[in-house]
Amino acid sequence: MKIDNTDWQILELLRKDAKVSTRDIAKKLRKPITTVHNRIKKLRQEGVIKNFTITLDNKKLGKSVDAFVLVNTAYDQVEGKDKNQEDIAREIKILQGVEEVCSITGINDLLVRVKQDNIDQLNNFLINKLRKIPGVRKTQTLMILNSIS
Fold first, then answer.
1. What tens digit of pLDDT does each residue of 96-123 get?
2. What is the reported pTM?
């Protein structure tokens, strides 16, 4: 699928606010509503738009601790199991508080975004959950002080 300038403009408006109406997009881009509707429909059908989502204010939900955790794996040293980095990532993803798990390049293998209520919960998550997964060799936690969206 070829993405033209109008498609990019639609995508940018939806990325900023997924609830923006087709009518508002059409007005901003000076295009007919049916054109915008059909383009969004096609972008969804082609898989360019995977889903529409919301951004939560985690602090208002009591999740005031936000961190990235760098994970170094040793999947080749897990006894009796044919395990790889992706298997470990899947195990991490299902842990409570895990927002995202990414395979990365460099010294570490995985980058995990975690949200917890407080430092004690984060500590418990790291020691009693994450580091207990077979194949997780070591972790390095980076606390997020501020995020600019």
1. 999 999 999 999 999 999 999 999 999 9
2. 0.74
SS3 68: strand
Alpha-carbon distance of 11 to 17, in angstroms, equals 10
Please report the pLDDT score of residue 141 as a whole number.
97
Three-class DSSP category at 20: coil
Q: Is 26 helix (H, G, I), strand (E, B) or coil?
A: helix
Domain that holds residue 115: 65-143
Contact 63, 107 (CB under 8 A): no
Q: Residue 17 corresponds to which amino acid?
A: D
| Residues 138, 73 within the same domain | yes
Tell me the C-alpha distance between 76 and 81, whole Å: 9
